[in-house]
């Protein structure tokens, strides 16, 4: 079973946690920070879930990350129909691939929040 973990940016640093909550009235995501002093709910920007996969440098890949492959192509990680995919807009032959087919040929290039 894969590890359940979320990541969000609180404006100063990355916050990691095990649960998220969205308040539709304030349009705010909250992340239950693990390892913090009181396991507090922290307001964060966009939230990404850990995909359960790592890149070729053994770094965790989260939903929304951008990956760069060995040939310099950039892939965006997204979730669809019960699976994580990587989309390469620069190469039509490899446009959408299961993340598990490309992750070991890529490294996390850019982290978004």
Give a verbal description of the structure.
There is one protein chain. The protein has about 110 residues and is mostly beta strands. The chain folds into 2 domains: about 5-45; about 55-110, SH3 type barrels (Roll). It is built from 1 helix and 11 strands; from the N terminus they run ββββββββββαβ. The strands form 2 sheets. A 6-stranded antiparallel beta sheet has the order 4-3-2-1-5-6, with no helix packed on it. β1 (about 5-10) and β2 form a beta hairpin. It starts with 5 loop residues before the first strand and ends with a strand. The mean pLDDT is about 85.
Supply the CATH architecture of the largest domain.
Roll
Give the count of structural domains: 2
CATH-assigned fold name of the largest domain: SH3 type barrels
Count up the helices. Answer: 1
Strand content: over 45%
Order of helices and strands: EEEEEEEEEEHE
Please state the structural category: mainly beta
How would you write the strand order of the largest sheet? Answer: 4-3-2-1-5-6
The CATH homologous superfamily of the largest domain corresponds to YopX-like domains
Low-confidence runs of at least 5 consecutive residues? none
What would the keywords be for this entry?
SH3 type barrels, 6-stranded antiparallel beta sheet, mainly beta, YopX-like_C, Phage-related protein, 113 residues, 1 helix
